[in-house]
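Here comes an entry:

___
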Amino acid sequence: MQSNSTPVLQEEIAGPASAFAPIQRQQRFASMDVLRGIALLGILIANVSDFGLPGWDYLVPLSTSKPVFTGPHAAANTAIWFARWLIMEGKMRALFSLLFGAGVILLTGRIEQRQGQGRAADIYLRRNMWLVLFGVLHGYLLYHGDILYFYGLIALLFLYPCRNLQPRTLAIAGVCLLVLSTCINPFAGGTAIRDLVLHERVVGAEHARQAGETLSASQQEDLRLWQAREQSWRPGADAVAADLAAGRGGIISNFRREVPAVIAYERDYFYGLVFLDMLPIMLLGMALSKNGFLTAGLSARSYGLTALASTAISVPLVAVATWKSYQSGFDMLTSEKWLFLTYDLGRVSGMLAIAGLGLFCVKKGLFPRFLGLLAPVGQMALSNYLLTSLLCNILFFWGPWKLYGLPEYYQLYYIVAGVWVVNLLWSALWLRRFQFGPAEWLWRSLTYWKIQPLLPPAPAERGQ
């Protein structure tokens, strides 16, 4: 890499490309590739729980085959759990959504400038229809927690008409949706508010029962719903044993276990993920792309202040929330009040802290070798996302080890570190030889319905 007055990883947009062709490698904003690399690696810190533990242990591992918060490894496990919430939980998914929204602005802007609005709409439509298909295949074959399906749907339904809105309008819309999310989103405060209201009715029903009154049908239903909620928060040993047996039963057994989870995920969380979790952050990403924030167009001071201010919000908020949950013995209502009602504010401020710190390093030229490893991971984000799911399936379900439910909680993060090494090394080595990752190449070829060159152009073709 060469040094100049601009940090190495802040690339400029190249000149016009040939008509009816996707952008070339030289045209990318490497600042966004760095952030995408951070998000890709970081999101496995959360997703490893989805692969290695039963689904109800995703946020708080209370029903694992090996105890997490008691026993000889309690200190290590508890420290890992706190660190996960402080550093990662929700923040990497938000960063992915932020960058996806920004990508809409960059993609459509380039194509409209070169080839006109009609061509941009055509490419955009086909690109995201293929993304929906990739998401369906990834969800059913590799990982029930897939996000590609939802990203493609949001892009098709909402983002294209929003591309010409002013940054201020996009930001206000995103913030308003986030406020709504805190109130009704089942991934955030919506679950806590629902359960708090239900608990009040259950207390009333219990008082009526103790007074010898006959419970109404609605009161009996409330008691049933409350019992189901408590069982989903801390499932019994039989449920854990049945889930572990299905997960370790081989490819077919695990497929049968995963399919109902995918169907429920795409059905039950559609509005929560699409309208309230992802869309508002994508709108913010579109705004921050237009004002130059995500393309490293602002000053290093701006990024430093963003990181400091956002950290000052996120870290104390999440630290108090996790401590309150831990202190209560992970009581369901207490945990929901603290972890869920603060979830959106903690994840968005944490996301901005991570983005601000990453872009500060880009602008200052700090850690160039490390950022130089992250950028290829981000450039091959789709390939690495799919590869990560494949590796985790081999380790936990398909291969001879069948590690599902076996490692201690802290040992899951040894696996995370190993997968990171594969992502970093494979991405760097692959891009020494090829222009794009294999999944990115396939996506481009399908979008343009023409085989795209995988090898980089010769120097003469680049005009050198």
